[in-house]
Amino acid sequence: MTLTLDPIAWTDVGAVTDIPLRGARRVPTAQGDIAIFRTGDGAVFALKDACPHKGGPLSQGMVHGRAVACPLHGWNIDLATGEPMGADHGKGCTPTIPLRVEQGRLLLGRA
Ligand code: FES
């Protein structure tokens, strides 16, 4: 049996090094703003740029570990899942966006 996988369109949105360690960048798209994060150990993640609480701009939050603290009310959002952490776990979820790195370039995906 041969599986047919849906293709993902990948868009080059810049160099990994454009984003400082423990930093973030907002990428405006036709589907809304996307936040790309780079952790202290160099991992990268992409989420819709909207907090699951009241839509705060996560790209302006503080990255710590594998999470970002929302700049509006301080919820901590898991960068890998988009889910609030700690006492706010289970109160919504920010959609994750496919992201990969190829030859130092950030490729943002959309199924
Ligand atoms: S909008 Fe993010 S914590 Fe309230």
Automatic annotation (TrEMBL):
Keywords: 2Fe-2S, Iron, Iron-sulfur, Metal-binding, Nitrate assimilation, Oxidoreductase. It holds the Pfam family Rieske. PROSITE patterns: RIESKE. GO terms for molecular function: 2 iron, 2 sulfur cluster binding; metal ion binding; nitrite reductase [NAD(P)H] activity. SUPFAM superfamilies: ISP domain (SSF50022). Residues 11-108 form the Rieske domain. GO terms for biological process: nitrate assimilation. PANTHER family: 3-PHENYLPROPIONATE_CINNAMIC ACID DIOXYGENASE FERREDOXIN SUBUNIT, FERREDOXIN-RELATED. NCBIfam families: nirD_assim_sml (TIGR02378). This is Nitrite reductase small subunit NirD.
